[in-house]
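Notes on consecutive records. When two proteins share a document, each keeps its own sequence and its own token line. Never mix them. Below: protein one.
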Amino acid sequence: MTLIEIPIHLDTFKPGSAEVKALTQALATRAEAAEMLANERYMDALERIVTAMRELREFPDYDNVEFRALLVALLFDLAELHFYIKDFKQSEKEVDVIFRLLDLLNEADKERFAPLHIEAMALSTRILRSRKKALELLVKRQMKVEEISEKVNSGITAATDKLIEALRGVGQLLASSGDYRAGMKFLAEAIKLSKKRTGRVTRKEIKMTIEMAEIMMRVNSMRPRARRLLNAVLPHAIAQETIELEEDILALIEMMDARDENPSRWKTFMHKLGKATKERFTRKKSEEEESAEPVETGE
């Protein structure tokens, strides 16, 4: 993991003031934590971030924007580190405080802090253990982002890309663990956000749509929807001349066609195979139990 970058404007204070001293000391301690993280010394890094929080308490004005900006950065660090050491409850508490602070910071400077709001959404996507809660928060916070971000700048674009990848990663992880429907919800959010950011269907959206269809194919009742999805995205793949994606789409459609041929015969065969295996296992177990019985000898 790497520490999030939030530039702090020290030039807004008088040189040598209490404000500058507190911020400078906390920033120096945070820099030490970054070095420890680079060497995978996670507990030492956590101790340094906690120390930086104590040093920041010396700042005289808790309503100051620079104070709150650095506090948010340190809370990002703590949330990541507590999650890494599996203190999930504490990590979730820190995410909650991050959003409260960002609401205040965005009122002060939308252009500067809107990207951090999206960074926090990506962080919450990875950290929140309740996937229902994570999705609800994302929907709520995406509406907030629309309010605070009237125009897309490079910072927001980069942060949004990070959120999209976080959603995509969680979706793939859930699907790989067998929670297909939850995985699809996260992928759907990633696709929707990606389309909204670009304003068109790009290679990235096509790839994620294919991943979505692959998950749908694992649920029998959703295969017709998977087919419709693939047929809808195929013209986009052809138009963009993405040969490998076009081939992936056609291969998935062919797989579904193969599965649909004589499905009743296949199900009957698999049922018989399972039944025969079970019968053999039961018969073998009975024979073993009989052979294990003591032989009675006459006296």
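Protein two starts on the next line and is unrelated to protein one.
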Amino acid sequence: MKLFQLIIFLLLAELSFGQKTIVFYDAIYKIAVPKVKVYNASGSFIGLTNDFGQLKIHDESFPLEARNFGYTTVQLTTYADTVFLTPEYQELEEVDIKPVNKMELYESIIERSSLNISKKDSKIRGTYFESVMIVNPKSKDTVFLDNVCDLIIEKEINRKSFDYTFYCNDGARSYVNEGDGMKEFDAHLLEVCLGFVKPFKNSLKYDLLSPKEYKLKFEEKQIDRNTETELHRLRFEKTEGKNTETVEVQYQDWKLYTWTSKNLREKHYDGEGIFVNYRKFARHVEFGDLPEYFFNTMINDGIVQIAVDGKFYEIYVVKGFIADESVDFELGEAYKEMEDYFETLKYSKREVGFYKFEEKK
């Protein structure tokens, strides 16, 4: 086993023909909009934008619909390299401009939202996907692994927590190596690299049944509040040394609708020895009211930088779930972990990636 492979195991103890890239920007602030959901004409989820607002689309996928909390839905009939999303604004007289303690406001939103979370046994339907990309930034050699399936999450209340069971259908997985210098990265190694982001089931503790997962420690001067949009926003940001933590919250009528956290860590590699940097970890959760107030999106992604003997690599990992009530199939074998299901599948030539990683230009 090569040294690089050994390091990964110890740490854990895209280009396709006929595709074009679309970039989504905020029409007012001219900044990229991540986590935009894109659907085809039949209403099926086909993709999600990355941190730079980018998504690769097949030529034959149009017409499309792009949706994101706090923005007006956009219909796309033909390809455009840039799409601007317009924030939904409320009437000026409705804007609350009274001074408030922003941290107390946030804590009240979380507490009240937790009380509103549906306690009923139910099924959450949608699409689950996970991807790994390993890239050599110098040579641009790249290797990908993608897993996807229809997913029904059965939730049952158990005292003060939910029990979650997974039912999977129409799964597929693919492995693509696009570089002569990446031969050592076989599919099994990429499966191991998925472990840099914790199993999807761990994310379900952010279901808001308990407010403790959403506890933050920020000073008032580190929090900004925007009440001009229909969904009000809070932004938290602090930097300690080379570490930066940001949290963005969208809410309305004391209900939480989106919660996004990102931790970035800068670390310099001097070109020698073994180097490891957990450069990024991000979590994105969305809640909705139909048919009940509960989560409908959960996405975790991270970037790990590793170097051995002068060879430097970046490992991108994402795991996500997007609710889709049109997903329906006969329940079969139950799984407690998504990993157990994908281990039953062989690799296919079917393109399965919903999330396309892109290096920052």
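For the record: Helices lie at 3-12, 102-116, 187-193, 200-203, 338-342.
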